[in-house]
């Protein structure tokens, strides 16, 4: 398969490149290790940490995803499987994408929204608790070092989809149903805990379309589209070229 434009690193030498320099690799491992210390402080036995890439180039522009395995050196040889989501610190990313806002919003959901969703269900004594969330182990709000460490759901049978392949109907239906239940929880909070709902409403204002980021992202889409068009063969790929050109014209309206 010919390499897609979107399979290539967005910025050479940047945070998303998998072929990291030795210095970059050590810095990344240092960040992950410091985060893990927050959840392993009471671990009396020793442990080792394995860190590897959790995504391929082009699969995630909003940070670096790392797969982490904590090997406990105890009698049971336990293992803890985690995903560390690290925000890019480079200005070239942070000036274009609302990195800090995105990470703080996700942290807010783990810290406040999800606990309230679960608490309401427990108070109503529901037989089956709706909780389609990965467990969050620790977070960092530090500017330039925003991060979230959560459980690796692959250990529960989940798989990472191929963004080159369409989602089949059964999986799409499952996702839409779960999203429906998730949004229904907001209505339940509004009806049963209006003060909590008001707090969420105040804390979760729309931050993308009402910021300078919107124009920057539109520019990125246009530039990426232009680069993709140049990669096509003007004779063999006329159909793809026409289709992409029409799509690029619709970008401002779609957003």
TrEMBL record:
Species, as recorded: Photinus pyralis
Protein name: CHK kinase-like domain-containing protein
InterPro entries: EcKL (IPR004119)
């Amino acid at each position: 398969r010919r390499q897609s434009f979107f399979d290539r690193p967005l910025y050479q030498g940047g945070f998303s490149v998998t072929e990291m320099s030795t210095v970059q690799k050590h810095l990344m491992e240092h960040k992950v290790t410091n985060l893990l210390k927050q959840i392993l402080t009471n671990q009396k036995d020793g442990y080792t940490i394995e860190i590897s890439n959790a995504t391929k180039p082009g699969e995630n522009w909003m940070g670096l995803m790392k797969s982490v395995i904590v090997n406990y050196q105890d009698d049971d040889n336990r293992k803890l499987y985690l995903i560390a989501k690290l925000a890019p610190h480079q200005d070239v990313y942070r000036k274009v994408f609302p990195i800090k806002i995105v990470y703080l919003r996700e942290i807010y959901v783990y810290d406040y929204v999800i606990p309230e969703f679960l608490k309401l269900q427990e108070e109503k004594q529901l037989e089956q608790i709706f909780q389609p969330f990965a467990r969050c182990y620790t977070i960092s709000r530090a500017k330039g070092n925003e991060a979230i460490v959560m459980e690796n759901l692959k250990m529960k049978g989940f798989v990472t989809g191929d963004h080159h392949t369409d989602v089949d109907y059964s999986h799409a239906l499952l996702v839409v149903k779960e999203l429906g239940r998730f949004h229904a929880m907001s209505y339940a909070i509004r009806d049963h805990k209006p003060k909590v709902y008001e707090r969420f409403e105040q804390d979760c204002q729309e931050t993308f379309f009402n910021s300078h980021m919107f124009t920057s992202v539109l520019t990125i889409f246009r530039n990426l589209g232009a680069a993709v068009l140049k990669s096509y063969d003007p004779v063999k790929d006329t159909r793809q070229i026409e289709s992409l050109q029409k799509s690029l014209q619709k970008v401002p309206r779609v957003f």
